[in-house]
Design brief:
Layout: E1 2-6, H1 10-22, E2 26-30, H2 33-39, E3 49-53, H3 61-71, E4 76-80, H4 85-93, E5 98-101, H5 106-124, E6 132-135, E7 138-141, E8 146-149, E9 152-154, H6 158-168, E10 175-176, H7 177-185, H8 193-207, E11 213-216, E12 220-223
Parallel strand pairs: 1-2, 1-3, 3-4, 4-5
Antiparallel strand pairs: 6-7, 7-8, 8-9, 10-12, 11-12
Keywords: DNA-binding, Phosphoprotein, Transcription, Transcription regulation
DNA-binding region: 130-225
Protein name: Sensory transduction protein RegX3
Length: 228
């Protein structure tokens, strides 16, 4: 996923960018409000999330959030030291999707990024019905957590469904193993790698479509959208 990090402190930005990169994000760093607004032209410029620090040198962060929302529907997470409820409400009213108060836990930040991105994809993915992902013969109903192939329901475990839904949100995009583990299992990569491999193998067998989920050696997995 492409992520726009709006942060005027280069040291903070460098450290956070390194963490995000390890979790599979392609990070672009903007040091000011104007840089951020230019990076989002045209219409979001392919970014999945904007991580917006409110303490910017050229413009008030709230003002920047309002301008971003007028230009694109890209999810915005505000990052600030202001913890009072009134500030949070103001940010949300301007169109922010979430609000993280410094100092924050990196795991929580990653979970919030994935959450707003997932909500955005689910809202935009209605190809023929709200909350339904259609991939050839495979239909994934997000609200009911039901999967069917050629009209026949396939019984999946909770983690199998979460894994399939994650990959199906962006067909063709490679998800790093660390990113999948972080979002589906809410834990770190250590000791969970074998579990991921087993769940992938189980999905291929249950869906009877071994080529649906492709292993990208040394990186992770991607869903290969079947022909309609």
């Amino acid at each position: 996923m492409r992520l726009l990090l709006v942060e005027d402190d280069n040291h903070v930005a460098a450290a956070l960018s390194a963490v995000l990169a390890r979790h599979g994000f392609d990070v672009t760093h903007a040091r000011s409000g104007e840089e951020a607004l230019q990076a989002l032209v045209p219409e979001g410029n392919g970014f999945g999330v904007v991580l917006l620090d409110l303490g910017l040198p050229d413009q008030d962060g709230y003002e920047v959030c309002g301008k971003i929302r007028k230009r694109t529907s890209t999810p915005v997470i505000m990052v600030t030291a202001r913890s009072d409820v009134r500030s949070r409400i103001h940010g949300l009213n301007l169109g922010a999707d979430d609000y993280v108060v410094k100092p924050y836990d990196t795991g929580e930040l990653l979970a919030r990024i994935h959450a707003v991105s997932r909500r955005n994809v689910q809202e935009d993915a209605g190809t023929g019905g709200e909350g339904v992902l259609r991939l050839g013969a495979v239909h994934i109903e997000l609200p009911t957590r039901q999967v069917s192939v050629d009209g026949s329901v396939v019984q999946l475990t909770r983690k199998e469904f979460d894994l399939l839904a994650l990959l199906a949100q962006r067909p063709g995009v490679v998800f790093r193993r660390e990113q999948i583990i972080s979002e589906v299992w809410r834990t770190s990569w250590e000791g969970t790698g074998r579990t991921l491999e087993v769940h992938v193998a189980s999905l291929r067998a249950k869906l009877r479509m071994p080529a649906l989920i492709e292993t990208v050696r040394g990186v992770g997995y991607r869903l290969v959208a079947p022909a309609s």
